UniProtKB/TrEMBL annotation:
GO terms for cellular component: protein-DNA complex. The keyword Mitochondrion does not apply. PANTHER family: TRANSCRIPTIONAL DUAL REGULATOR HCAR-RELATED, TRANSCRIPTIONAL REGULATOR OF OXIDATIVE STRESS OXYR. Belongs to the LysR transcriptional regulatory family. It comes from the Bacteria. This is LysR family transcriptional regulator.
Length: 316
């Protein structure tokens, strides 16, 4: 039996159907009609001589082989995109489209001040932003839906490279009148029964608990919040204490509240803000250039944050 190689377009249809689980939504994502997408997938099955998708009126179910081929298709599409990017980046760095993920405990505090300056420096850069939790951002990065991510380290994100932008100190936020007299807070002095944490999926929680070296805090936390802004309002209403990164305070998250914040006294009382990308990416030079631009912009808008920022390239 002669098996012909599929086209990139056919593989894109297959990956879209796998991602959305619905022919109509997959077609919309590929900017084609449902009949075009369906015909393309049937052509792919004919070319390969196998059934990839079981079709019924109510459900789309991939065969076991279909799942394997869809996984391989993601890698093939990513490699094809990187071929194009390799040629483009050699001509004009930071020109054209760049898809960057940003985690929720960074995005609202850095982007409003950072993006106008970045647009001014690189007017031909079309930056598409996607706010996602650390796990989701890393998955999107490795599946080729993102080119790079602004992430807080340490975090296990697979086979990636990274450049550190700065170290973001962790502080403990107290309701008015509850902050200790000392200039910093010992981890042992935090009452785990009054601790308010971000819900699972936010790496800031893991960074804070790791810095405290008190794993029991996770089990005793009084409440889980969906955002730092929510936790700050709860602290301001006297419901407990929480961890707040310095970048959020620098951006004004405590303005209008009676909260008092004290630095966490710990050898690891910070998270490391970094730009990360797939180690296989041909755009490494561009990402290093972008990291340098971001670090320079951050020094301008928040010199207190980046005063001790390390500049070395590290592996995540």
């Amino acid at each position: 039996m002669s098996v012909h190689p599929p086209t990139i377009k056919q593989l894109q249809y297959l990956v879209a159907l796998r991602q959305h689980g619905h022919f109509g939504r997959a077609a919309d994502a590929c900017f084609v009609t449902q009949s075009t997408l369906s015909a393309g997938l049937r052509e792919l099955e004919t070319l390969l001589g196998v059934t990839l998708v079981e079709r019924t009126r109510r459900v789309v179910r991939f065969t076991a082989l279909g799942e394997k081929i869809a996984d391989k298709a993601i890698a093939v599409i990513r490699e094809a995109e990187e071929l194009t990017e390799l040629a483009r980046a050699d001509g004009q760095p930071l020109h054209g489209e760049l898809r960057m993920g940003v985690i929720p405990t960074i995005a609202p505090f850095l982007l409003p001040a950072m993006l106008p300056k970045l647009r001014s420096e690189w007017p031909n850069l079309k930056l598409y932003l996607r706010e996602e939790t650390s796990h989701a951002a890393c998955e999107a990065l490795h599946r080729g839906r993102l080119d790079c991510v602004l992430l807080a380290l340490p975090f296990g994100c697979g086979d990636v490279d990274s450049v550190t932008l700065f170290d973001d100190r962790l502080l403990v936020a107290f309701p008015r009148g509850e902050a200790p007299a000392a200039k910093s807070v010992e981890a042992g002095a935090i009452d785990e029964n009054r601790l308010l944490l971000l819900e699972d999926g936010h790496c800031l929680k893991d960074h804070a608990l790791s810095a405290c070296n008190r794993p029991e805090m996770r089990a005793h936390a009084a409440m889980m919040g969906t955002s730092l802004h929510t936790l700050v309002q709860m602290v301001d209403n006297g419901l407990g204490v929480t961890f707040v990164p310095a970048m959020a305070i620098s951006a004004g998250i405590l303005q209008g509240t009676n909260i008092e914040a004290r630095p966490l006294k710990s050898d690891h009382g910070y998270r490391r803000i970094a730009l990360i990308w797939r180690r296989s990416s041909p755009r490494e030079g561009e990402f290093n250039l972008l990291a340098s631009a971001l670090r320079r912009i951050l020094r301008e808008i928040s010199p207190d944050l980046t005063a001790t920022a390390p500049a070395e390239r590290v592996s995540a």
